Amino acid sequence: MYQAITADVRDKVGTITLSREERRNAISPTMMNALMDSFTKYNDDPNVVVIVLTGAGDRAFCSGGDFAESIAAGASFVERYEEQRQFAEFFKIIISLKKPLVGRINGHAMGGGLGLAAACDIAVAAEDCKFGTPEANVGLFPYIIMATLLRITTSPKRLLEMMLAGERIDAQEALQLGLVNHVVPRDQLDMKVDEIAGKLSSKSPLTLRLGRRAFYTMRDMEYEKALEYLSSMLAINTAAEDVAEGIASFIEKREPNWKGK
Predict the structure, then answer these.
(1) Which domain does 220 fall in, by range?
(2) Do 4 and 19 meet the contact criterion of CB atoms below 8 Å apart?
(3) 112-119 vs 77-95: helix axis angle to the nearest 10?
């Protein structure tokens, strides 16, 4: 159905694969359109509880933006601006997802690819992966992904150094900086991703949606306002049918039958 990506659903998990292996899975305008469409569809698909994002092959998760398509087509300045602005719109889609997003970081994540990896709720990286912001090496700067990176890193100063120097780091440092959640040997990557996706897909879809939304909404709130907001979210959550089902299944020592209501 798509060019530049593949998408499939299995066992409540929707997997989206960046599929431009010959270009190290760089994000072209065609790929961006496909990503935005597939994420929107999976977001509304009741058969999908968890979304996994990964790259084809084992060399690169994503090497960043590739706008050669628009340049080759002779796109105007405004047209190229709108294409590049889609990347920012895509991050808005990620934040507004109703479902957890798990990153299977199968190879190097550079520039925009690092931004995608960091935007995942849970990112699992193979231990031989490299991460970086090489834009400064060609006279650019990683503007759009800063919005994500700065909100999750444990060291803003180290992040700034990376961006200014166009530096690459290994997976262990990415873990220390909070850019990924787990680093595993390459032969254990699929097992770890499947383990996480399986745990999440067994939970109430409603609880995942409400909890994820609350996390990102309150992240930038003042402390007292955050508490007020979270009190309201708790009241909404406790009124859900899935809460009654969860409690009943716990008492009856059986698996819950979630309805997402």
Answers:
(1) 205-251
(2) yes
(3) 20
Determine the distance from the C-alpha atom of residue 169 to the mean position of all C-alpha atoms in its chain, rounded to a whole number.
20
Distance CA 49, CA 199 (A): 11
pLDDT tens digits along 217-247: 999 999 999 999 999 999 999 999 999 999 9
Q: Distances in Å between the alpha carbon of 163 and those of 24, 138, 169, 176, 180?
A: 21, 12, 11, 17, 17
What are the C-alpha distances in Å from 65 to residues 31, 101, 228, 242?
10, 21, 40, 41
Residue 148: CATH number of its domain: 3.90.226.10
Give the pair of three-digit tokens for residue 12.
């409540």
Question: Rounded CA gap, 242 and 79, in Å?
Answer: 46
25 and 150 share one domain: yes
Give the up-direction half-sphere exposure of residue 126: CA atoms within 13 A in the CB hemisphere. 21
pLDDT value, residue 84: 82
Domain end among 185, 201, 217: 201
The secondary structure element, H or E, covering residue 2 is: none
Name the band, by pLDDT with cuts 50, 70 and 90, for residue 164.
very high
Which amino acid belongs to residue 102?
V
Q: How many domains are contained in the chain? A: 2
Average pLDDT, the chain: 95
Same domain, yes or no, for 125 and 91? yes
The CA distance from 249 to 253, in Å, is: 6
